[in-house]
Write a structure and sequence with these properties.
globular, 19% strand, single chain, 32% helix, 264 residues, eight-stranded mixed beta sheet, alpha/beta
Length: 264
């Protein structure tokens, strides 16, 4: 289920997303009896699936990764890279595995779909996640977009109940202003960066906070970013803290950035 994408991939491209997943979801993966993660649409080469296994195992040593691709030739090319804890399957959004995954990462996949298709894909993938329990938040779907070498990235995190947060992440030395990240907004938001939509207001306020934090630039881009994000917390529901800000990240509650009207 799905459409063959361009398959562009590069080693280390998804490092920012992977680091965030390990920090935000590592404890849930460790608690799971048999944690399974899916790299959905890994592309023309399996580098991102190999790297996902390595990075997740620093946080959850028992995790298994399944790379899923809709193009059979890409699956065949990936099979020599299979190893203990890493397998590859042919398929798409239906997730052709028996288990309910504790993580699904879909990077640079929905970018090539129409906006009105996003909600149904999200709903279908969230329905396949491991369910929430009294002592566990359930599985996590991380869906977003990055540039070709992973310097700029924006993703949405969703649980079985739906969208939770939006994370903006960057190599800070590559940014002139935070709104440079607008070109990497996921499909659900990229066409909403217009006046009257929350994500446009957020990026406008972020640029203003960045400009006001200019005196901190003498201490480096990281200190300027931290100061700008700290100022943003006065008006926006920032969901993380300085530990993540120092990584060039900021996470905001989904409801604050969600489109005002459904896609048409």
């Amino acid at each position: 289920m799905g459409t063959v994408t361009r398959g562009t991939t590069n080693p280390n491209r998804l490092r920012r997303m992977d680091r965030w997943i390990a920090a935000a979801h590592g404890a849930a993966l460790r608690r799971a009896a048999d944690p399974v993660a899916v790299d959905l649409g890994y592309g023309a080469a399996p580098w991102t699936a190999v790297e996902l296994l390595h990075r997740l195992r620093t946080a959850a040593p028992r995790v298994r990764v399944v790379g899923i691709e809709i193009e059979p030739a890409r699956v065949a090319a990936a099979l020599p890279y299979a190893r203990e804890g890493l397998t590859f399957r042919h398929g798409g959004f239906e997730l052709p595995i028996a288990e309910r995954p504790h993580l699904v990462r879909a990077a640079n996949v929905l970018r090539q779909y129409d906006e009105e298709q996003v909600a149904a894909v999200w709903e279908g993938l969230c329905a396949r996640l491991a369910p929430a329990a009294p002592d566990a938040p359930g599985g996590l779907l991380v869906e977003g977009t990055c540039d070709e070498i992973g310097r700029r990235h924006v993703w949405v995190a969703l649980g079985p109940e739906g969208p939770r947060t939006v994370t903006f992440a960057a190599r800070l030395g590559s940014l002139e202003r935070p709104s440079d990240l607008a070109e990497r907004l996921p499909k659900a938001l990229i066409h909403r960066n217009v006046p009257g939509e929350p994500v446009h207001a957020f990026l406008r306020d972020f640029d203003r906070a960045w400009a006001a934090a200019a005196p901190y630039a003498s201490y480096g881009a990281r200190q300027r970013w931290i100061r700008a994000v700290r100022d943003l917390t006065a008006d926006w529901p920032v969901a993380d803290g300085p530990v993540r800000w120092r990584q060039g990240e900021v996470t905001v509650r989904w409801e604050a950035l969600a489109p005002r009207r459904p896609a048409v």
